[in-house]
Write a structure and sequence with these properties.
The complex is a heterodimer of chains A (about 100) and B (about 150). Chain A is about 0% helix and about 50% strand. Chain A is mainly beta and about 100 residues long. Chain A has a 4-stranded antiparallel sheet, with no helix packed on it. Chain A has a 3-stranded antiparallel sheet with strand order 1-2-5, with no helix packed on it. Chain A is elongated, with a radius of gyration of 15 Å. In chain B, the strands form 2 sheets. In chain B, strands 1, 3, 5, 6, 8 and 9 form a 6-stranded mixed sheet that branches. Chain B is globular, with a radius of gyration of 16 Å. The chains are: A mainly beta (about 100), B alpha+beta (about 150).
Chain lengths: ~100, ~150
């Protein structure tokens, strides 16, 4: 299981500013190892964000998102105490889901 | 013999053809997304997504450093004030595959995203807003990279 994400959801008015830091290698498939062989691509290609269980945003990523990806977005109509969930899936089929509370 | 690159190119073309025939509606969506991430140029990406020719717009903004010291971590923001946005794309023109990230926007989120991207070399960075009716608007910004982030 991959390392947990760090999610922070800060309330500003009726909007929640969500910042997510994921722990992932994001191997592009372009890099070569010390033996000169290509390192196979391994990256997060699907990200989903929810507010109280309802999907508010989905994203598809390519291999050129940085290692340990950072993502920031704003959810409208959020209240203190709402649950913001973020989940991702990578090209090896591994996934991770974490939750944070809007404050 | 077919190289991997050629095989990928062919599969993208085949996927595009399948999608354009509309014979496999449920399959077509997945195929389109895949070929978009393999497309090499900004125009190809939009074609693969079925969006129209992009028009430069001041209602779309792309943010990033003028000079990125480390191409492995380049902070990029993409946003728009236009209403009725379906997708926001972030593209780096000179990367091996131009499309970096695609955000599907709903009514519950603002069309304003920030992430970090890898850049192999100095290049134009694009933010493209694809509207619900298929129109595309873009903004671009040149980011100079002193140390590439894609090679070994």
């Amino acid at each position: 299981m991959a390392d947990p994400m760090r999610i922070r959801a800060q309330l500003a008015g009726d909007k929640a500013n969500v910042r997510v830091l994921m722990a992932h290698e994001m191997e592009s498939g372009q890099r070569k190892d010390s033996a000169g062989k290509l390192v196979p691509a391994w990256y997060i290609n699907e990200v989903t964000a929810t507010l109280n269980g309802k999907v508010v945003m989905t994203a598809e990523w390519g291999p050129s998102v940085s290692k340990n990806p950072f993502l920031q977005f704003t959810i409208k109509g959020a209240k203190a105490g709402d649950k913001v969930g973020v989940s991702w899936k990578d090209t090896k089929g591994e996934s991770r889901a974490d939750e944070a509370t809007v404050s | 013999m077919q190289t991997r690159r050629e095989a990928l190119k062919h599969s993208a073309i085949v996927a595009g053809l399948l999608a354009s025939t509309g014979l496999f509606p449920q399959f077509a969506i997945a195929a389109v997304d895949k070929s978009a991430f393999q497309a090499k140029s900004v125009a190809d990406v939009l074609k693969a997504l079925g969006a129209g020719a992009p028009v430069e717009s001041k209602d779309v903004t792309v943010g990033g450093p003028d000079i990125a010291e480390n191409g492995a971590v380049v902070p990029i923001t993409a946003s728009t004030t236009l209403a009725g946005v379906k997708q926001i794309l972030v593209l780096v023109e000179k990367n091996p595959a131009a499309l970096v990230a695609l955000f599907n926007v709903t009514d519950s989120v603002e069309a304003n995203f920030a992430t970090r991207t890898k850049m192999g070399q100095s290049s134009d960075v694009y933010a493209v807003a694809v509207m619900a009716d298929g129109k595309a608007f873009f903004a671009k910004k040149e980011v100079k990279v002193t140390l590439g982030g894609c090679g070994g």
